[in-house]
Amino acid sequence: MPRNWKIVEHSAASRWAVKYASINPNGEIQLSRVTIESMGNPKSVVLMYEAETETIGLKPARNGEQHAFPLRKRGSRGGYLLRGYKLMKDHHLKLTQTLKFSDIQTELGVLLLDLRTAEPVRRA
Q1: Mind listing the pLDDT tens digit of every residue in the chain (124 residues)?
Q2: Given CA atoms 109, 81, 72, 76 in this order, what sign does their dihedral have?
Q3: CA 113 – CA 119 distance, rounded (Å)
Q4: Domain ranges of the chain
Q5: Taking the model in full, what pTM does it have?
């Protein structure tokens, strides 16, 4: 019986070469360089949460802005880390595994990370 092979297209872009964001159970949010660039390369962000839509919002912060969370460089590919444990604590969010945000949108300058559509990160 002949095989019905389907070709898997190779993409040269790694996960860090596209918009990427994930959150782990400790509230650490990983952001790709491309994601940060799409926000205008802020050094810190205002971390927000909308309970009704289970959406995390990241708004670029101005220097010295109150409630700003610093973005820390992470890894050799230009990624960033946001320590958001306070988000988890203040809003009683509990995750059992790391989730990646599959549909990253921007609305009025705020990066939207929707927990309702986030998917578990698959580990090899």
Answers
A1: 889 988 887 766 665 678 999 999 999 999 999 999 999 999 999 999 999 999 999 999 988 889 999 999 987 777 999 999 999 999 999 999 999 998 999 999 999 999 999 999 987 5
A2: negative
A3: 12
A4: 22-114
A5: 0.84
Distance CA 9, CA 75 (A): 27
Residue bearing tokens 């939207």:
112
**Distance from C-alpha of 1 to C-alpha of 78, rounded to nearest angstrom:** 49
Q: Which helix (H) or strand (E) segment is 37 a member of? A: helix 33-38
71 close to 31: Cβ distance less than 8 angstroms: yes
The single-letter code of the amino acid at 4 is N
